[in-house]
Amino acid sequence: MTAIIGRMGALDLSGVTKVFDSGEDQVHAFGPADLSIMSGEFVSLLGPSGCGKSTLMLMIAGLLPLTAGSITFHGEPVTGPRTDIGIMFQDNTLVPWRDIYGNVALQLELRGIDPEKRRDRISGLLKSVRLDGFEHRYPHELSGGMQQRAAFCQTMVHEPSTVLLDEPLGKLDAMTRESIRGDLQALWMEQKPTVIFVTHSIEEAVQLSSRVCVVTPRPGRIDRIIDVDLPWPRDHAVKRSAAFADYIREIQEVFHGFGIL
User: What is the pLDDT of residue 5?
Assistant: First the structure.
């Protein structure tokens, strides 16, 4: 079940490395790593806290310079921040003085897109994550899970071909996480953007991903890439299957080898 690295994809990483240099102290945070991600894939970066997953995500987004190696996006080198991707972090970026509709529309305004021309798009996104009827509520009036659903709509409203999700469910309770996983899965199945998803949950990675990249403890390296050959949607029946359990055990064995589990 181990995938082969070396295909040319929508996103290609070659020898990607990050070292933070603070005077005499150096911290080797990530790499080197090679990875190719094809258009329309849902790929998870799965690893323990502090292994450099989020650092890699920032480098892919062009928000953090590489120490060594290269990242190309559809053949074009990533040399700075990109506006043609969607990014969602663990802490949402909703502004408190705008209602939910206005927060989603804000992303369009910042990109110079007329929100009025995307009114149906905004309303459709909010409905798809069960926020219809809450458009004119303010963030503080919503639960944490509802805020994250709104933040995901922010990320998707300009129809990015590539979406970076950095532990967006990390602060939510188990039941809310499960519910939002279903929303993410449904939107991905409908629109098929390329998704790179950072998580430290094995179950979450197997449920959502077409491939799981298992990252070692710091300095993070991609130790193994596992193709997840399970039917979509990955509902409760799939999660109760022997095949799902096999993937969980396989990944647990990898982390056991790291001395983690």
Answer: 40
d(C-alpha 230, C-alpha 212), whole Å:
13
The pLDDT-based confidence of 9 (bands split at 50, 70, 90) is: low
Q: What is the pLDDT of residue 141?
A: 95
Is pLDDT larger for residue 172 or for residue 132? 132
CA dihedral 111, 113, 116, 121 (to 10 degrees): -80
32 CB burial (10 A radius; 0-12, 13-18, 19+): middle
| Alpha carbons 229 and 85: distance in angstroms, whole number | 27
Sign of the torsion angle spanned by Cα atoms 251, 255, 257, 261: negative
Span 235-252, pLDDT tens digits: 989 999 999 999 999 999
Sequence-separated (6 or more) residues with CB below 8 Å from residue 130? 149, 183
Residue 186: is it exposed, middle or buried by C-beta count within 10 angstroms (0-12/13-18/19+)? middle
How far apart, in whole angstroms, are the C-alpha atoms of residue 223 and residue 8? Answer: 20
Which tens digit of pLDDT belongs to each residue from 88-97? Answer: 887 888 999 9
